[in-house]
Amino acid sequence: MTLPRPELPRPSLRRPAFPRPHRVDLLIAVSGLAGGLLLWAFGLYVTDDHVFGQRWATLVPLTVMAATEALRRTAPRFALVVATLAIVGDQLTHGNLATILMFTDVVYAAVVYGTPALARRVPYTTGFITVATTGVLLVWWQNAIALLVGALTGMLSFLPAVTGSIVRNHRNAADAARLRAEQTALLAEMDRAQAVVAERARMARELHDMVANHLSAIAIHSTAALSLDEPATTRQALTVIRENSVAGLTEMRRLIGLLRDSGAETEPAAAPTLAGLDALVAQAGANGGPAGLTVVLDDTREPAGGLPAPVELAAYRIVQESLTNALKHAAPGEVRVTLAQGPGSLSVTVSSLYGERPGPTAPGSGAGLVGMRERVALLDGVFEAGPVPDGESRKRWRVRVELPVDRNDGERA
User: Fold this and answer.
1) pTM for this structure?
2) What is the rounded distance in angstroms from the CA atom of residue 89 to the CA atom of residue 288?
3) Domains of the chain from N-terminus onward
Protein backbone atom coordinates (compact mmCIF):
# COMPACT_ATOMS: atom_id res chain seq x y z
CA MET A 1 0.00 0.00 0.00
CA THR A 2 1.37 3.38 -0.98
CA LEU A 3 1.22 5.96 1.72
CA PRO A 4 0.40 9.53 0.69
CA ARG A 5 3.36 11.87 0.78
CA PRO A 6 3.01 14.63 3.35
CA GLU A 7 2.79 18.07 1.88
CA LEU A 8 5.70 20.20 2.97
CA PRO A 9 5.17 23.90 3.41
CA ARG A 10 6.41 25.80 0.41
CA PRO A 11 8.91 28.54 1.04
CA SER A 12 7.54 31.98 0.49
CA LEU A 13 8.92 33.72 -2.57
CA ARG A 14 7.94 37.18 -1.37
CA ARG A 15 10.80 39.18 -0.02
CA PRO A 16 10.23 41.27 3.11
CA ALA A 17 9.80 44.99 2.59
CA PHE A 18 12.91 45.68 4.65
CA PRO A 19 15.64 43.39 5.90
CA ARG A 20 15.82 42.62 9.58
CA PRO A 21 17.30 45.58 11.48
CA HIS A 22 20.78 45.24 12.89
CA ARG A 23 21.06 44.71 16.63
CA VAL A 24 23.24 47.80 17.05
CA ASP A 25 20.69 49.89 15.17
CA LEU A 26 17.89 48.61 17.39
CA LEU A 27 19.94 49.53 20.44
CA ILE A 28 20.53 53.05 19.07
CA ALA A 29 16.82 53.44 18.29
CA VAL A 30 15.73 52.32 21.77
CA SER A 31 18.35 54.51 23.45
CA GLY A 32 17.33 57.56 21.40
CA LEU A 33 13.65 57.00 22.09
CA ALA A 34 14.31 56.54 25.83
CA GLY A 35 16.41 59.71 25.96
CA GLY A 36 13.75 61.69 24.11
CA LEU A 37 11.01 60.44 26.43
CA LEU A 38 13.13 61.43 29.41
CA LEU A 39 13.59 64.97 28.05
CA TRP A 40 9.88 65.17 27.21
CA ALA A 41 8.92 63.99 30.72
CA PHE A 42 10.97 66.79 32.30
CA GLY A 43 9.56 69.35 29.86
CA LEU A 44 12.94 70.11 28.25
CA TYR A 45 12.10 71.45 24.82
CA VAL A 46 14.18 73.03 22.08
CA THR A 47 11.98 76.11 21.43
CA ASP A 48 8.81 77.75 22.55
CA ASP A 49 7.77 78.76 19.04
CA HIS A 50 5.50 76.11 17.62
CA VAL A 51 2.57 75.47 15.35
CA PHE A 52 1.20 72.48 17.22
CA GLY A 53 1.02 73.44 20.86
CA GLN A 54 -0.12 70.10 22.22
CA ARG A 55 2.46 68.53 24.49
CA TRP A 56 2.04 65.08 22.97
CA ALA A 57 2.78 66.39 19.45
CA THR A 58 6.52 66.30 20.19
CA LEU A 59 6.34 62.54 20.62
CA VAL A 60 5.24 61.90 17.00
CA PRO A 61 8.45 63.03 15.25
CA LEU A 62 10.47 61.50 18.12
CA THR A 63 8.90 58.07 17.59
CA VAL A 64 9.23 58.27 13.80
CA MET A 65 12.88 59.32 14.09
CA ALA A 66 13.60 56.40 16.43
CA ALA A 67 12.02 54.04 13.88
CA THR A 68 14.30 55.40 11.14
CA GLU A 69 17.30 54.74 13.41
CA ALA A 70 16.37 51.05 13.38
CA LEU A 71 16.60 51.13 9.54
CA ARG A 72 19.74 53.28 9.29
CA ARG A 73 21.89 50.35 8.09
CA THR A 74 19.43 48.10 6.24
CA ALA A 75 17.38 50.77 4.40
CA PRO A 76 19.43 54.00 4.53
CA ARG A 77 17.66 55.79 1.66
CA PHE A 78 14.19 55.20 3.06
CA ALA A 79 15.36 56.09 6.57
CA LEU A 80 16.86 59.38 5.33
CA VAL A 81 13.65 60.42 3.54
CA VAL A 82 11.44 59.63 6.52
CA ALA A 83 13.91 61.23 8.95
CA THR A 84 13.89 64.44 6.87
CA LEU A 85 10.10 64.60 7.13
CA ALA A 86 10.32 63.86 10.86
CA ILE A 87 12.84 66.68 11.52
CA VAL A 88 10.64 69.11 9.60
CA GLY A 89 7.66 68.01 11.66
CA ASP A 90 9.72 68.37 14.85
CA GLN A 91 10.29 72.04 14.02
CA LEU A 92 6.51 72.55 14.06
CA THR A 93 6.28 71.35 17.68
CA HIS A 94 8.11 72.25 20.86
CA GLY A 95 11.05 70.23 19.53
CA ASN A 96 13.13 67.53 21.15
CA LEU A 97 16.93 67.43 21.32
CA ALA A 98 16.97 63.64 20.96
CA THR A 99 15.09 63.90 17.66
CA ILE A 100 17.69 66.34 16.32
CA LEU A 101 20.63 64.17 17.40
CA MET A 102 19.08 61.05 15.88
CA PHE A 103 18.59 62.93 12.60
CA THR A 104 22.30 63.72 12.40
CA ASP A 105 23.05 60.02 12.90
CA VAL A 106 20.61 59.01 10.13
CA VAL A 107 22.32 61.45 7.73
CA TYR A 108 25.71 60.03 8.69
CA ALA A 109 24.48 56.44 8.25
CA ALA A 110 22.94 57.22 4.84
CA VAL A 111 26.38 58.24 3.54
CA VAL A 112 28.27 55.38 5.19
CA TYR A 113 25.87 52.51 4.44
CA GLY A 114 23.98 53.80 1.41
CA THR A 115 24.67 53.19 -2.25
CA PRO A 116 27.62 54.97 -3.88
CA ALA A 117 25.22 57.31 -5.69
CA LEU A 118 23.46 58.20 -2.43
CA ALA A 119 26.81 58.70 -0.68
CA ARG A 120 27.84 61.19 -3.39
CA ARG A 121 24.57 63.12 -3.47
CA VAL A 122 23.87 63.60 0.26
CA PRO A 123 26.89 65.88 1.01
CA TYR A 124 26.15 68.07 -2.01
CA THR A 125 22.43 68.20 -1.19
CA THR A 126 22.96 69.08 2.47
CA GLY A 127 25.56 71.67 1.52
CA PHE A 128 23.15 73.27 -0.92
CA ILE A 129 20.37 73.25 1.71
CA THR A 130 22.70 74.90 4.23
CA VAL A 131 23.73 77.66 1.84
CA ALA A 132 20.18 78.18 0.57
CA THR A 133 18.74 78.34 4.10
CA THR A 134 21.37 80.87 5.18
CA GLY A 135 20.77 83.03 2.11
CA VAL A 136 16.99 83.01 2.42
CA LEU A 137 17.09 83.86 6.12
CA LEU A 138 19.59 86.68 5.53
CA VAL A 139 17.28 88.21 2.95
CA TRP A 140 14.24 87.68 5.16
CA TRP A 141 15.56 88.58 8.62
CA GLN A 142 18.50 90.79 7.63
CA ASN A 143 20.39 90.19 10.88
CA ALA A 144 23.14 87.98 12.28
CA ILE A 145 20.69 85.43 13.65
CA ALA A 146 20.31 84.12 10.08
CA LEU A 147 24.03 83.22 10.06
CA LEU A 148 23.63 81.39 13.36
CA VAL A 149 20.63 79.43 12.07
CA GLY A 150 22.55 78.62 8.87
CA ALA A 151 25.51 77.37 10.92
CA LEU A 152 23.19 75.20 13.00
CA THR A 153 21.62 73.82 9.81
CA GLY A 154 25.06 72.94 8.48
CA MET A 155 26.02 71.26 11.76
CA LEU A 156 22.87 69.15 11.73
CA SER A 157 22.98 68.11 8.06
CA PHE A 158 26.14 69.00 6.13
CA LEU A 159 28.67 68.15 8.87
CA PRO A 160 27.31 64.61 9.48
CA ALA A 161 27.25 64.00 5.71
CA VAL A 162 30.88 65.09 5.33
CA THR A 163 31.90 62.97 8.32
CA GLY A 164 30.14 59.96 6.80
CA SER A 165 31.87 60.57 3.47
CA ILE A 166 35.28 60.64 5.15
CA VAL A 167 34.55 57.43 7.05
CA ARG A 168 33.26 55.71 3.92
CA ASN A 169 36.35 56.73 1.94
CA HIS A 170 38.60 55.35 4.67
CA ARG A 171 36.66 52.10 4.71
CA ASN A 172 36.84 51.80 0.92
CA ALA A 173 40.58 52.44 1.04
CA ALA A 174 40.97 49.79 3.75
CA ASP A 175 38.89 47.31 1.73
CA ALA A 176 40.95 48.04 -1.38
CA ALA A 177 44.19 47.57 0.56
CA ARG A 178 42.87 44.31 2.00
CA LEU A 179 41.87 43.13 -1.47
CA ARG A 180 45.29 44.02 -2.85
CA ALA A 181 46.93 42.13 0.00
CA GLU A 182 44.76 39.07 -0.68
CA GLN A 183 45.54 39.26 -4.40
CA THR A 184 49.25 39.62 -3.65
CA ALA A 185 49.11 36.62 -1.34
CA LEU A 186 47.22 34.65 -4.00
CA LEU A 187 49.77 35.57 -6.67
CA ALA A 188 52.61 34.67 -4.32
CA GLU A 189 51.00 31.30 -3.65
CA MET A 190 50.54 30.74 -7.40
CA ASP A 191 54.18 31.68 -8.03
CA ARG A 192 55.26 29.33 -5.25
CA ALA A 193 53.18 26.49 -6.69
CA GLN A 194 54.57 27.12 -10.18
CA ALA A 195 58.10 27.22 -8.80
CA VAL A 196 57.52 23.90 -7.02
CA VAL A 197 56.13 22.33 -10.21
CA ALA A 198 59.05 23.66 -12.26
CA GLU A 199 61.56 22.40 -9.70
CA ARG A 200 59.93 18.98 -9.61
CA ALA A 201 60.03 18.82 -13.41
CA ARG A 202 63.71 19.80 -13.40
CA MET A 203 64.49 17.15 -10.77
CA ALA A 204 62.59 14.55 -12.79
CA ARG A 205 64.60 15.40 -15.92
CA GLU A 206 67.90 15.29 -14.06
CA LEU A 207 67.04 12.01 -12.34
CA HIS A 208 65.90 10.41 -15.58
CA ASP A 209 68.91 11.57 -17.59
CA MET A 210 71.45 10.57 -14.93
CA VAL A 211 70.08 7.15 -13.98
CA ALA A 212 68.18 5.92 -17.05
CA ASN A 213 71.37 5.30 -19.04
CA HIS A 214 72.89 3.10 -16.36
CA LEU A 215 69.67 1.23 -15.59
CA SER A 216 69.03 0.55 -19.28
CA ALA A 217 72.49 -0.97 -19.67
CA ILE A 218 71.93 -3.05 -16.53
CA ALA A 219 68.57 -4.30 -17.83
CA ILE A 220 69.92 -5.27 -21.26
CA HIS A 221 73.06 -7.03 -20.02
CA SER A 222 71.27 -8.82 -17.20
CA THR A 223 68.77 -10.15 -19.74
CA ALA A 224 71.65 -11.30 -21.95
CA ALA A 225 73.37 -13.00 -19.03
CA LEU A 226 70.18 -14.85 -18.14
CA SER A 227 69.37 -15.90 -21.72
CA LEU A 228 72.88 -16.98 -22.87
CA ASP A 229 74.59 -19.88 -21.14
CA GLU A 230 78.16 -18.80 -22.00
CA PRO A 231 80.62 -18.08 -19.20
CA ALA A 232 82.52 -15.42 -21.16
CA THR A 233 79.35 -13.57 -22.15
CA THR A 234 77.98 -13.82 -18.65
CA ARG A 235 81.21 -12.49 -17.14
CA GLN A 236 81.28 -9.58 -19.60
CA ALA A 237 77.62 -8.78 -18.89
CA LEU A 238 78.18 -8.90 -15.14
CA THR A 239 81.17 -6.56 -15.51
CA VAL A 240 79.07 -4.06 -17.42
CA ILE A 241 76.25 -4.43 -14.88
CA ARG A 242 78.60 -3.73 -12.00
CA GLU A 243 80.14 -0.66 -13.67
CA ASN A 244 76.75 0.84 -14.49
CA SER A 245 75.26 0.06 -11.08
CA VAL A 246 78.20 1.72 -9.33
CA ALA A 247 78.00 4.76 -11.63
CA GLY A 248 74.24 4.98 -11.22
CA LEU A 249 74.52 4.71 -7.45
CA THR A 250 77.12 7.48 -7.44
CA GLU A 251 74.87 9.74 -9.50
CA MET A 252 71.90 8.95 -7.26
CA ARG A 253 73.87 9.76 -4.12
CA ARG A 254 75.02 13.05 -5.64
CA LEU A 255 71.44 14.03 -6.47
CA ILE A 256 70.20 13.07 -3.00
CA GLY A 257 73.03 15.09 -1.47
CA LEU A 258 72.05 18.13 -3.52
CA LEU A 259 68.43 17.80 -2.41
CA ARG A 260 69.33 17.43 1.26
CA ASP A 261 71.83 20.30 1.27
CA SER A 262 69.73 22.68 -0.85
CA GLY A 263 69.15 24.97 2.14
CA ALA A 264 72.74 24.86 3.41
CA GLU A 265 75.65 26.94 2.20
CA THR A 266 77.49 24.41 0.06
CA GLU A 267 79.77 24.78 -2.91
CA PRO A 268 77.96 24.48 -6.25
CA ALA A 269 78.26 21.04 -7.81
CA ALA A 270 79.97 20.82 -11.17
CA ALA A 271 77.44 20.39 -13.96
CA PRO A 272 78.35 18.11 -16.89
CA THR A 273 79.65 19.92 -19.98
CA LEU A 274 80.35 18.99 -23.57
CA ALA A 275 83.97 18.34 -22.61
CA GLY A 276 82.76 15.07 -21.10
CA LEU A 277 81.20 13.79 -24.33
CA ASP A 278 84.23 11.61 -25.14
CA ALA A 279 83.80 9.67 -21.91
CA LEU A 280 80.01 9.50 -22.42
CA VAL A 281 80.43 8.15 -25.97
CA ALA A 282 83.04 5.65 -24.85
CA GLN A 283 80.75 4.37 -22.11
CA ALA A 284 77.82 4.14 -24.54
CA GLY A 285 80.01 2.20 -26.97
CA ALA A 286 81.02 -0.26 -24.25
CA ASN A 287 77.41 -0.73 -23.19
CA GLY A 288 76.14 -1.14 -26.76
CA GLY A 289 78.95 -3.36 -28.04
CA PRO A 290 77.22 -6.65 -27.27
CA ALA A 291 74.11 -5.39 -29.12
CA GLY A 292 76.12 -4.54 -32.25
CA LEU A 293 76.13 -0.78 -31.72
CA THR A 294 79.09 1.41 -32.65
CA VAL A 295 79.01 4.96 -31.26
CA VAL A 296 80.86 7.68 -33.19
CA LEU A 297 81.35 11.32 -32.12
CA ASP A 298 81.66 13.98 -34.83
CA ASP A 299 82.36 17.33 -33.16
CA THR A 300 82.99 20.09 -35.74
CA ARG A 301 82.96 22.99 -33.25
CA GLU A 302 85.89 25.29 -32.85
CA PRO A 303 87.99 24.28 -29.83
CA ALA A 304 88.07 27.81 -28.40
CA GLY A 305 84.36 28.44 -28.81
CA GLY A 306 82.77 28.86 -25.37
CA LEU A 307 79.08 28.17 -24.68
CA PRO A 308 76.74 29.30 -21.89
CA ALA A 309 76.42 26.78 -19.07
CA PRO A 310 72.66 26.13 -19.62
CA VAL A 311 73.29 25.35 -23.30
CA GLU A 312 76.15 22.97 -22.51
CA LEU A 313 74.11 21.18 -19.85
CA ALA A 314 71.10 20.83 -22.16
CA ALA A 315 73.23 19.57 -25.07
CA TYR A 316 75.01 17.04 -22.84
CA ARG A 317 71.76 15.71 -21.38
CA ILE A 318 70.16 15.46 -24.84
CA VAL A 319 73.10 13.44 -26.16
CA GLN A 320 73.03 11.27 -23.02
CA GLU A 321 69.31 10.56 -23.36
CA SER A 322 69.58 9.92 -27.12
CA LEU A 323 72.35 7.37 -26.53
CA THR A 324 70.21 5.74 -23.84
CA ASN A 325 67.31 5.44 -26.31
CA ALA A 326 69.68 4.01 -28.94
CA LEU A 327 70.92 1.42 -26.43
CA LYS A 328 67.30 0.44 -25.77
CA HIS A 329 65.81 0.40 -29.25
CA ALA A 330 68.39 0.89 -32.06
CA ALA A 331 69.14 -1.82 -34.59
CA PRO A 332 72.77 -3.00 -34.89
CA GLY A 333 74.91 -0.45 -36.68
CA GLU A 334 76.43 2.97 -36.26
CA VAL A 335 75.14 5.54 -33.76
CA ARG A 336 76.47 8.95 -34.80
CA VAL A 337 76.62 12.00 -32.56
CA THR A 338 77.19 15.25 -34.48
CA LEU A 339 77.82 18.68 -32.97
CA ALA A 340 78.09 21.84 -35.06
CA GLN A 341 78.14 25.46 -34.00
CA GLY A 342 76.89 28.11 -36.37
CA PRO A 343 76.31 31.84 -35.97
CA GLY A 344 74.07 32.13 -32.94
CA SER A 345 73.13 28.45 -32.54
CA LEU A 346 74.43 25.04 -31.54
CA SER A 347 73.25 22.04 -33.53
CA VAL A 348 73.14 18.59 -31.92
CA THR A 349 72.17 15.51 -33.95
CA VAL A 350 72.08 11.89 -32.79
CA SER A 351 71.05 9.25 -35.33
CA SER A 352 70.85 5.46 -35.20
CA LEU A 353 69.41 2.67 -37.35
CA TYR A 354 65.66 2.36 -36.97
CA GLY A 355 64.10 -1.08 -36.85
CA GLU A 356 63.91 -4.33 -34.98
CA ARG A 357 67.05 -5.79 -33.51
CA PRO A 358 67.95 -9.21 -32.18
CA GLY A 359 68.71 -9.84 -28.56
CA PRO A 360 67.37 -8.28 -25.37
CA THR A 361 65.86 -4.79 -25.27
CA ALA A 362 64.72 -2.49 -22.50
CA PRO A 363 61.18 -1.06 -22.35
CA GLY A 364 60.68 2.67 -22.78
CA SER A 365 58.12 5.03 -21.28
CA GLY A 366 58.53 8.10 -23.49
CA ALA A 367 59.71 10.24 -20.58
CA GLY A 368 63.06 10.78 -22.26
CA LEU A 369 61.57 12.51 -25.31
CA VAL A 370 59.38 14.63 -23.03
CA GLY A 371 62.41 15.67 -20.97
CA MET A 372 64.43 16.58 -24.06
CA ARG A 373 61.57 18.60 -25.49
CA GLU A 374 61.21 20.46 -22.17
CA ARG A 375 64.93 21.26 -22.04
CA VAL A 376 64.87 22.68 -25.56
CA ALA A 377 61.69 24.67 -24.90
CA LEU A 378 63.25 26.30 -21.82
CA LEU A 379 66.02 27.66 -24.08
CA ASP A 380 63.64 28.64 -26.92
CA GLY A 381 65.27 26.11 -29.24
CA VAL A 382 64.03 23.72 -31.93
CA PHE A 383 63.52 20.01 -31.27
CA GLU A 384 62.89 17.26 -33.85
CA ALA A 385 62.71 13.52 -33.28
CA GLY A 386 61.54 10.78 -35.62
CA PRO A 387 62.51 8.38 -38.40
CA VAL A 388 64.21 9.74 -41.54
CA PRO A 389 65.30 7.97 -44.77
CA ASP A 390 68.88 6.60 -44.79
CA GLY A 391 69.36 6.42 -48.54
CA GLU A 392 69.91 2.63 -48.48
CA SER A 393 66.26 1.53 -48.25
CA ARG A 394 66.60 1.75 -44.46
CA LYS A 395 65.50 4.33 -41.96
CA ARG A 396 67.35 6.00 -39.18
CA TRP A 397 65.94 7.46 -35.98
CA ARG A 398 67.23 10.99 -35.69
CA VAL A 399 67.12 13.48 -32.84
CA ARG A 400 68.01 16.97 -34.02
CA VAL A 401 68.21 20.02 -31.76
CA GLU A 402 68.97 23.67 -32.45
CA LEU A 403 69.90 25.64 -29.33
CA PRO A 404 70.24 29.43 -29.56
CA VAL A 405 73.59 30.77 -28.37
CA ASP A 406 74.31 34.35 -27.40
CA ARG A 407 77.82 35.27 -28.48
CA ASN A 408 78.34 37.56 -25.53
CA ASP A 409 77.31 34.76 -23.16
CA GLY A 410 79.60 32.41 -25.01
CA GLU A 411 82.57 34.75 -24.59
CA ARG A 412 81.87 35.10 -20.86
CA ALA A 413 81.44 31.34 -20.30
Assistant:
1) 0.54
2) 105
3) 23-187 (no CATH), 273-413 (3.30.565.10)
